[in-house]
Amino acid sequence: MAFPSFELSPPPPPSSQVEENTTTSVIIKQENASNSTKTSKNYNLLLAINYAFLFVGSVSSTLIFKFYFIHKGSSRWVSTWVQSAGFPLLLLPVFLPYYLFKCTRRRPFSGFSSKLLLLSMAVGVFLGVNNFLFSWGNSYLPVSTASLLLSSQLAFNLILSVIIVKQKITFMNLNCVILLTLSSVLLALSSSHDKPQGLTRGKYMVGFFSTLGAGFLFALYLPVMEKIYRKVYCYSMVVEMQLVMEMTATVFATAGMAADGGFSDMKVESARVFDKGPVEYWCTIAGNLVLWQFCFMGTAGMVFLTTSLTGGICMTALMAMNVVGGVAVYGDELGGVKAVSTVLCVWGFCSYLYGMYMKNKNQKQSSHQSSTIQMEEVSIAHTAS
Q1: For the chain, which end, N or C, has fewer CB atoms within 10 Å of the first or last residue's CB respectively?
Q2: pLDDT value at position 343?
Q3: pTM
Q4: Which residue ranges in the chain fall short of pLDDT 70?
Q5: Residue 54, domain extent
Q6: Is residue 18 part of a domain?
Q7: What is the pLDDT of residue 7?
């Protein structure tokens, strides 16, 4: 026989307890608002640091990459290897905060599952292939064609982001993608005279499909990483994943270097081929190792903190800065087409930033209004008691 159950409501608390509970509730809400503001400041600081890494890494690595080829460096495997072999630098932010500075209670790689490790290694191989295709294509194609093909990555990125991470297409991001793509196309057309000597049709086709493949793979890499990062709960894990990915990409590149004689090519290039001498050759290699890590870590941080589309837009927008850097460092000619391209690039990027600013501002206003309403309700309940 089943007996009916009754839930007994607790007796109403005395008025003094109601006042105490109400006051406590108000204090808790104020503390939550303070913590939210503090978290927002930390987020903005981390975002600024990662974009600084991306800016410095992307522009500087492009310039030093060009310096390598200008002064008769030509090894495709060397230019592939330097893009990932600087991974030991990532050991510093992974281990120093816990073991030396004692500023975190989280041990390195804690919560790093075997599944996440395998995913990181798989993406590392993916990155190694992408780096190789990028170097292979740039070694064969004229600057104009390579720039034109790489500009397609942003359109690929938008399409793949819609499919993989359900990115919503808005006027803001579509307008930015169109403007930045037009900017890249104009930039490529302005460099149509930069055709390497002795370029055969066979080499041209190899370079064409290699560069197109590199653009597509990078566009795929961004939304795939965004989806993986949704399973990651802190920025430290992003750095740890990046360390594993770069190590794996380096193993891939080192195997290729060993099989194709890339290490002997480095010795020959430094001693006989590079026209600036061995010291500047190894300084160029070291600079590449450091700056490519800045670039990739900045990209990973942007994807984790924002979206894959924002990361792709920031990368493409920096093409304008590469133009300015080429003019400032190498004395490249800044013609009318390049100037228009740079203006379109800045216009598209600024319009996207403004749209993001207005979106965040509206979200903060909505959150503030909701918090104000809750505080008023608490105040009314306190008065009524």
Answers
A1: N
A2: 83
A3: 0.81
A4: 1-38, 142-148, 151, 187-199, 368-385
A5: 34-369
A6: no
A7: 38
* pLDDT for residue 192: 54
Cα–Cα dist 240/22, whole Å: 44
CA distance between the termini of the chain = 44
Count of structural domains, the chain: 1
The pLDDT assigned to 8 comes to 40
- Asked if residue 280 lies in contact with residue 43, where contact means CB atoms within 8 angstroms, the answer is no
**Position 281 in a domain:** yes
pLDDT at residue 277, as a whole number: 92
Contacts for 217-220: CB closer than 8 Å, 24+ residues apart: 217/126, 217/129, 217/130, 217/133, 218/130, 218/153, 219/152, 219/153, 219/154, 219/156, 219/157, 219/160, 219/312, 220/156, 220/160
Least Cα distance to 51 among 241, 359, 306, 322 occurs for 306
Q: Burial level of 357, CB count in 10 A (0-12/13-18/19+)?
A: exposed
CA–CA distance, 45 with 289 (Å, rounded to integer): 25
Rounded distance between C-alpha atoms, residue 290 and residue 275, angstroms: 22
Alpha-carbon distance 161 to 168, whole Å? Answer: 9
Residue 208, domain member (yes or no): yes
Could you report the per-residue pLDDT of 111-122, keeping only the tens digit for each?
A: 899 999 999 999
Determine, yes or no, domain membership for 8. Answer: no
CA distance 337 to 331: 16
Q: How many residues does the chain have?
A: 385
Query: In the numeric block, which tokens belong to residue 297?
Result: 């870590």
